[in-house]
Design a protein that fits this description.
187 residues; Pseudouridine synthase; three-stranded antiparallel sheet
Length: 187
Amino acid sequence: MVNHEEDEIEIEGGEQEELYEHHRFIVEKGHMMIRIDKFLFNRMPNISRNKIQQACEDGNILVNGKPVKSSYKVKPLDQIQIVLPEPVREHELVPQDLPIDIVYEDEDLVIINKAPGMVVHPAYGNYTGTLMNALVYHFSNLPASAKNMDRPGLVHRIDKNTSGLLVIAKTESAMNHLAKEFFRPND
């Protein structure tokens, strides 16, 4: 179960902090005990395990209302909250005139050589300056799926500090075909 709210959280001891709940999970009955960082990493596809561990160190992950370390092992029916010092942002993809290295382009796709240090798509802490911000500036009407409205044309990604080629679909047909190709297990 996942909830996304923007309410202030009162930390135990009565002190009120400017923290906002971003995610809430209730661990299922019968769930095996695993580290909380691994549990959250498996449920939050857009966040790295390092960021989860940092959130634990910062006291921003609560289990049953109390901060925990990343080594905490979740138990069935634990209530997990991720609280952060700013409200949840709506997924607004703002076009930005950022330089991108186009290696190849035709009417169906474009291949970009992503520079190291550039985040591929907006997420917590990186809402601007991403490759997606640049792509929506340089290309109009990139296709988007219902579950990935903030990643039009994107069929795969690479990490922030990794450089390399990214294939971006320019048409819905290309996006469907490429998504299947990237998903296909090795034959």
